[in-house]
Amino acid sequence: MNNNLNFTGRSLYDLDSYTIEEIETIFETAKVMKEINKRDYKKIPTLRGKTIATLFFEESTRTRISFELAAKRLSADVISFSSIGSSVKKGESLQDTVYTLNAMGIDLYVVRHSSPGVPQLVYKYSQKPVLNAGDGRHSHPTQALLDMFSIWERKGSLKDLKITIVGDILHSRVVRSNLIGMSKMGAKVTVCGPRTLMPPKVEKVYGAKSEYDLYKAIDGADVIMALRIQLERQSEGLFPGLNEYSQRYGLSKEVLKYTKEDVLIMHPGPMNRGIEILPEVADSKHSIIIEQVTNGVAIRMALLFLILGGKAN
Q: Which of the residues in the chain have pLDDT under 70?
């Protein structure tokens, strides 16, 4: 790990602006944070006196809790903002919301919004570092980092690993960030799903292989990640009935027979058990789904620590 890298004051909109060395430094820092989270007393005073605002204009219990827990474990103060019941509902603009919060002395913003590009706008109005917690269908870089860290920790590296991602590729911001990050770290990524849920030019844009047959996609895979099927898409006619989808693309015990003995099974959550992944797989020895949740806190602690002035050592 290069201790001379400087993360202080940086924003994270997506992984394209971070180098391999910087991502590895985040992973090494997350390892330390994970050890802290195993202690009986899990709090350290590193960010005492810092104030972090979580701006969630879109609901997400898991991501919000993970960020807020990460901040509190580092002894930062947290202001939790939700558009529900806020002045935004009364017509206040994003600009005025950020100006108001900035006047309270915010040091870093965590932003989730249904529209791409809002994290960049928050930086424009605040001039404070911003972590993107999901912007529309565009990106979700901290989820990708925790996914990659979970693989890196188990396999030692992502280089030359075959990673297969199965599900609604077209609408997933998690996939986009993972494709950028995993490819950058040297993994060979295959995306798989119904044709109606696959974006065009995946290979040209991201260097990933497209496959529509699950068994071909998982052949030789070191890691298989199932994505949540967005049930609202069924009304749009973009995929067949849930039973048919589960039979063709669901990860089942039968599917595991065609995988490597040491394959890792992942899911960014929340899961639709019995649809994209069956309980027998989600709870199997191959699954690191719960570990992903644990690693999410460690990754977010690492980012807050590095960006708000901690040193990588």
A: 1-4, 83-91, 231-240, 310-313
Whether residues 152 and 181 fall in one domain: yes
Choosing from 39, 89, 90, 201, the catalytic residue is 90
Residue 162 phi, psi (nearest 5): -95, 120
Distance CA 111, CA 52 (A): 11
The verdict on whether 63 is a catalytic residue reads yes
| Cβ proximity of 169 and 198 under 8 Å | yes
Residue 195: active-site member: no
Identity of residue 139: S
Mark whether 162 is an active-site residue.
Answer: no
* Pair 164, 264 in one domain: yes
Pair (259, 277) in one structural domain: yes
Tokens of 56: 């969630």
For residue range 159-188, list pLDDT tens digits in order: 999 999 999 998 899 999 999 999 999 999
Q: Of 62, 124, 195, 216, which one is the catalytic site residue? A: 62
Q: Which of 25, 63, 97, 259 is catalytic?
A: 63
Prediction pTM value: 0.93
Reading the block at residue 82, the tokens are 């939700």
Catalytic residue selected from 128, 140, 173, 176: 140
**Residue 166 is part of a domain; what is its CATH number?**
3.40.50.1370
Among candidate residues 34, 73, 112, 176, the one labeled active-site is 112
